[in-house]
Every structure is written in C-alpha cells, then in structure tokens.
Amino acid sequence: MKAIVSLLPEELSDTVHGIWRELESDFGFKSVLVTPFPHFTYCIVSDEKAEPCTSLERIAAQIRPFRVRTEYLGVFSGERPVIFIGIARNPELAALHKSIRQDFCSLPEEDSDLYGPQHWIPHITLALGNELTRENIGPIMERLAFRDFHTEFVIDNITVLEGSLEEGVRIERRFSFSAIH
C-alpha cells in the first residue's frame, strides 16, 4: 500500500515526535513509530492502482505553499480507536484533497471510505492500534487534553509513503510545491 500525505514542517514534526516519545516511554506505545514521518494523509492507494508520481508531480507544480491550522485533540472511536490532532479544513486544503482524489485515489464505490470527500478529517495521528486500550485511553487523553494544539503551519509538499506497519514505512517520493502566481 501507498499513502499520499503531506509531511509536517520541522517545528511541528518535532512536537509530534516529542509526543510519540512520551507515549512510548510512559505507555509503551511503538505502533505509531512504524511511520517515523509526522504527516497527515489524503488517501491510501492500493498497489494495483497506477503509479501516482506523475499526477502528483503535476499537481505539486501548480500549487503554492499555503497555511493551515491544527485546532483540536480528537479520537476516532470504534474497535481500534485513534487519538489525533485535528487539522481545520480550509478552501486550499479541500481543493488539494479533491485534486488528489480525482486523479488516482477515487472510485465511485469508495465515497464512503474515511478518505472520501464526505468523510475525510485531516489529522495527525498520535496513538493507534492494539496498544490503545480501554485501560490507557483515559490516562493518555487526560495527559494530552490540557495542551494547546492550536498551531498554524505551511503545507509545502505532497509525499508518497510506501510500506506496511509490519515491515516499516519509507518515503518513496516527495514533491515540493513550486507554483508562483
């Protein structure tokens, strides 16, 4: 599988790494460290799909870097909950997501998936997987809930991550935004 993402700028990436290290040392979390690149995801592409790099290079060449904000600490509930930092959608971010989905991520039957336009919540994952349990979710949320997660940052890339949680994840290709308007 491949994930189409934007990597975070250095300062925010350092903050996320700090939270990951804290969750690892105090709660034993290792699953989030499999993807060692703090990011948020636009969509997941199956291996059967066409190579996304040509489309992404074209998209990146047409976009200027733009600002977004992290706004809140959130939880995706269910059998395998996820604790995350939510990113507020703005017109530029929504347009970029739409371009990526239209070019190679979207199929009509996928509209109900988590990365579909109706359901996509841009977010930075802090904790997930089997390590997040009924016993530790409360203490983790208590620890994180009183932190300020309001941060403005610049998105300046589209990146393809490749791999799996079992084998690890690597950067396949990174495209910097380059359009000058």
Concise synopsis of the structure shown:
The protein has 181 residues and is α+β, with helices and mostly antiparallel strands. It is built from 4 helices and 8 strands.
How would you describe this protein?
The longest helix has 18 residues, at 10-27. It is globular, with a radius of gyration of 16 Å. Strand 3 and strand 4 form a beta hairpin. The chain has 181 residues and is an alpha+beta fold. The protein has 4 helices and 8 strands. The strands form 2 sheets. Strands 2-1-7-8 form a 4-stranded antiparallel β-sheet. Strands 5-4-3-6 form a 4-stranded antiparallel β-sheet. The protein has helices spanning 10-27, 53-61, 91-105, 134-145, and strands at 2-7, 39-45, 66-76, 82-87, 123-127, 151-155, 157-164, 168-176. It has one domain: Cyclic Phosphodiesterase, Chain: A (Alpha-Beta Complex). The chain starts with a strand and ends in a 5-residue tail after the last strand.
Order of strands, main sheet, comes to 2-1-7-8
Task: Report the mean per-residue pLDDT as an integer.
Answer: 88
Tell me the number of strands: 8
Low-confidence stretches: none
Q: Portion of residues in helices?
A: 25-40%
Please give the CATH class.
Answer: Alpha Beta
Total number of domains: 1
Cα distance spanning the termini: 34 Å
Query: Would you list the SSEs in sequence order as H and E?
Result: EHEHEEHEHEEE
Per DSSP, what share of the residues sits in E-state strands of 2 or more residues?
25-35%
Number of helices: 4
Based on secondary structure, the structural category is alpha+beta
CATH architecture group name? Alpha-Beta Complex
Main beta sheet, described? 4 strands, antiparallel
Rg over C-alpha atoms, rounded to the nearest angstrom: 16 Å
Q: Looking at the structure, what is the overall shape?
A: globular
At CATH level 3, the topology is: Cyclic Phosphodiesterase, Chain: A
CATH homologous superfamily assignment? Cyclic phosphodiesterase
